[in-house]
Design a protein that fits this description.
Elements lengths: L11 E6 L9 E5 L4 E5 L8 H14 L7 E5 L5 E6 L7 H8 L2 H4 L3 H13 L10 E6 L2 E6 L22 H10 L6 H13 L4 H6 L9 H12 L1 H14 L2 H4 L8
Bound molecules: adenosine-5'-triphosphate and magnesium ion (MG).
The site of magnesium ion has 4 residues, from loops.
Amino acid sequence: MTESGRLFPLVIRRTEPAGYCTAACKSIGVGDDGLTYILKRVADAHPLIPVSEWVCTKLAEHVGLAVSPCHIATLPGGERAFASREEGGLMDTDAAMHLLEQPEALRPHLPALARWYAFDVFTYNVDRHIANFLFRQGRMGMALMGIDFSQALLTEGWPTVGIPLPTCNTSHARRTFEAVLPYPSAEAAALANRLAGVSDEWLADTLSPVPEQWLDARVRTSLIRWWGSARHKRLSLLHKHFASGRYLRILANPRRS
Ligand SMILES: Nc1ncnc2c1ncn2[C@@H]1O[C@H](COP(=O)(O)OP(=O)(O)OP(=O)(O)O)[C@@H](O)[C@H]1O
Ligand SMILES: [Mg+2]
């Protein structure tokens, strides 16, 4: 069985240019299940993007954040690529933002926004701009999903990069929402607790299906070691400062813009 529960890995039958004016996503493809996938390849931009996308998406799902199902897919020709299933039923980003300017519309989404912020601080995701949320319409309301970990984790030098985040797209988006209503700090602290509760074996298990071309064996070993040890120190610091609200209020490192 594969990492995503399928008996066989997802095979992408056909690809085409993505047509997005974006940095890291160059192609989309249709899988052997007939669904469309957003693809990220080692050669597209930064070579560590596929592994960063894989680990972040799996970790977010593991701690209860809404993400699209993802795969380590095989492209025509045999290359392995990160594949995120295209979500349907999306609201236009501008329309969603217009709606969320109303406090009553924003309020139900504040717990998810605070949890995403905590997740992004932990994974050093500096690119959580508004369009890196999907606003998905369901029969019982709109839900926020997280996509795009192309500027998080290994592409940014994680785990040795400092915390909290610099001034960046992630802190700008937080300020946009917080101009309407403040984030609940208890939700951010609870997410740090959840991340601390992830097993020490989790990263090794999650990296085991990752191809060698995506991640050098030596880096893999040192990351796995970090996950079982220094991760806990980072998370207890995050928990403390989220609980007090400090990491939700300050821009600690304004050098980077
Ligand atoms: N799972 C998904 N379902 C539907 N649409 C998606 C999904 N993942 C990505 N997209 C769409 O594809 C676009 C590009 O994907 P993504 O944001 O991952 O790439 P990027 O090149 O890293 O973007 P950025 O400009 O933010 O750096 C997104 O803005 C979104 O419109
Ligand atoms: Mg994006």
